[in-house]
Specification:
Mean pLDDT: 94
CATH topology of the largest domain: Rossmann fold
Low-confidence stretches: none
Number of strands: 14
CATH superfamily of the largest domain: NAD(P)-binding Rossmann-like Domain
Radius of gyration: 22 Å
Helix content: 25-40%
Order of helices and strands: HHEHEHEEHEHEHEEHEHEHEHEHHEHHHE
Structural class: alpha/beta
Protein name: 3-ketoacyl-ACP reductase
InterPro entries: KR_dom (IPR057326), NAD(P)-bd_dom_sf (IPR036291), SDR (IPR050259), SDR_fam (IPR002347)
Domain Ketoreductase: 234-417
Oligomer: single chain
CATH class of the largest domain: Alpha Beta
Strand order of the largest sheet: 3-2-1-4-5-6-7
Largest sheet: 7 strands, parallel
Shape: globular
Family: Belongs to the short-chain dehydrogenases/reductases (SDR) family.
Bound molecules: nicotinamide-adenine-dinucleotide
Number of helices: 16
GO molecular function: 3-oxoacyl-[acyl-carrier-protein] reductase (NADPH) activity
Strand content: 15-25%
Length: 480
């Protein structure tokens, strides 16, 4: 489904019409393209007292070819950067009419050492000076600690306060700029996550707080030889892969090196075959992908799926994407509409996971990613069945994370907002336009935005991320 308004207001004629009558002008978001550099330019660094992540930041920015320039709040950055041989300098805030090349690609604030509410003022200093200096489709990243990891209630309070700051910045920044909070536990590995949030791959993820724990007992994952293909050698199952978001998830996982098994219902067999062929054509590891035809709600399906995957040698990544809607207000909803939505969207996921885990088909270090929805967070008129199922996906992620941690398996969910697919194309026009515009990016997301987010959560570097729900919603007002 095309967003004609977005296209119109970004044409020369449309832009002048929008300016003259004051229409909103959503930015065309910069997304990842293999033929364009993923990273570059400057990141302005700010900090509260006792920042813990400067060394890590200096090393990661260096690996990305980005220059960290220090705001006056980031005391200690310059000598440390110099001692590590990193490119650096002082941050000069730019005037609002500064050219693109004078702007910074990111504002990064290390708030890990903030231990009481009075120290939150350091946020004001940095973002007051810096917010106008960020390039279009730039990034704001605040680094803090998980409040639950702070022994002192004053520190936990101040760390929780970072959420309000980060979310408000996302609403104020505009121009396709995202703002996210990474709650980093001491000893956690943040490289894969920092890369994702600095990259155009996270274009439609904003207003999120992601908790990164130190990896459990298992040794830390080796860094990928090629960061564009961190899933090399992993096998991934994607349900509902014939079209829409599932096809995109399958495509992104394959482009990052995974061997993908796409699953869909018998009536979607032709579409599934076409999707998998297209993925094979686009993928240099061609030939390793497969189509699996099954209705996940059919009796015995979970055992059959587990047997098929066991015969292939096991699986590393499971993405529960298949889902349906049967919308009606509860008074008018049939029992069948209730039962089938709960069964396909939630109970079938449980049955498949149970079968894969019981037989050890999901290998150690595995990843489970459920596709929830902002309806599961906010509830929605006419979607009691759907919202119940999608809230259940969130409950499952939170309750299973501690159980799976001992096996080195992570479980997380993505919660898409309004994504341009056949599902949303069927919505009435008024609702569709509202869904598209009621977020900080003033536009719907693309299936690839969900695919990129799933691929990040599936990556070996995300061992410390489990039990999280990451919204892919452009910071939608719904459920915010
Ligand atoms: P879609 O209807 O375009 O695709 C869903 C796919 O799942 C289809 O290929 C379908 O055949 C498959 N499927 C359905 N029932 C199945 C079953 N019993 N067994 C196997 N496969 C089955 O939907 P989409 O928009 O791509 O949505 C994908 C997921 O994202 C769903 O879980 C949906 O709830 C969720 N989601 C979508 C949006 C959005 O805006 N499109 C927003 C939030 C969440």
């Amino acid at each position: 489904m095309k967003d004609r308004y977005l296209k119109f207001v970004n044409s020369p004629f449309g832009a002048s019409v929008a300016r003259s009558i004051g229409l909103p002008r959503p930015e065309v978001l910069r997304r990842y393209r293999a033929d364009q550099p993923e990273f570059g330019g400057m990141a302005a660094i700010g900090a509260g007292p006792s920042p813990a992540l400067f060394e890590t930041l200096i090393d990661i920015l260096g690996a990305l070819g980005m220059t960290g320039v220090a705001h006056e709040s980031a005391r200690g950055w310059l000598p440390l950067a110099n001692s590590r041989g990193a490119m650096s300098g002082r941050f000069e805030p730019q005037a609002p009419d500064a050219s693109a090349s004078e702007r910074v690609q990111a504002l990064i604030f290390d708030g890990t050492g903030i231990a009481e509410s009075t120290q939150l003022r350091s946020l004001y200093g940095f973002f007051h000076d810096g917010i106008r200096s960020v390039a279009k489709s730039g990034r704001i990243i605040v680094l803090g600690r998980p409040p639950g990891s702070c022994a002192d209630p004053h520190a936990a309070t101040a760390q929780h306060a970072l959420e309000g700051m980060t979310r408000s910045l996302g609403k104020e920044a505009r121009s396709g700029i995202s703002s996210n909070l990474l709650q980093v536990a001491p000893g956690a590995d943040i490289e894969a996550t920092l890369r994702f949030f600095l990259s155009p791959r996270s274009a439609y993820v904003s207003g999120q707080a992601v908790r990164i724990d130190a990896a459990p007992a298992a040794p830390p994952a080796a860094k990928p030889a090629d960061w564009r293909r961190p899933l090399e050698g992993r096998r991934a199952l994607v349900t509902g892969a014939a079209r829409g978001i599932g096809a995109s998830i399958a495509g992104v996982l394959a482009s990052q090196g995974a061997h993908v098994i796409g699953l869909d219902v018998p009536p979607a067999k032709d579409a599934l075959d076409q999707t998998m062929l297209a993925i094979e054509d686009a993928s240099p590891s061609g030939g390793a992908h497969a189509a699996l035809v099954a209705d996940i709600a059919a009796p015995g399906a979970s055992a059959e799926i587990a047997a098929a995957l066991a015969a292939m040698g096991g699986i590393d990544i499971v993405v529960h994407n298949a889902g349906i809607t049967k919308d009606r207000t509860i008074a008018k909803m049939t029992r069948e509409a209730w039962d089938s939505v709960i069964d396909i969207n939630l109970s079938a996921q449980e049955r498949i996971d149970d079968a894969l885990l019981a037989q050890g088909v999901l290998r150690e270090g595995g990843r489970i990613i459920g596709v929830s929805s902002i309806s599961g967070i906010a509830g929605n008129l006419g979607q009691t069945n759907y919202a119940t199922s999608k809230a259940g996906v969130i409950g499952r992620v939170r309750s299973m994370a501690p159980v799976l941690r001992t096996r080195g398996i992570t479980i997380n969910a993505v919660a898409p907002g309004f994504i341009e697919t056949q599902m949303t194309a069927r919505m009435p026009l008024g609702l569709r336009e509202a869904g598209r515009r009621m977020n900080s990016m003033s536009q719907g997301g693309q299936p690839v935005d969900v695919g990129e987010t799933v691929a990040w959560l599936a990556s070996p570097g995300c061992t410390g991320i489990t039990g999280n729900v990451v919204r892919v919603c452009g910071q939608s007002l719904i459920g915010a």
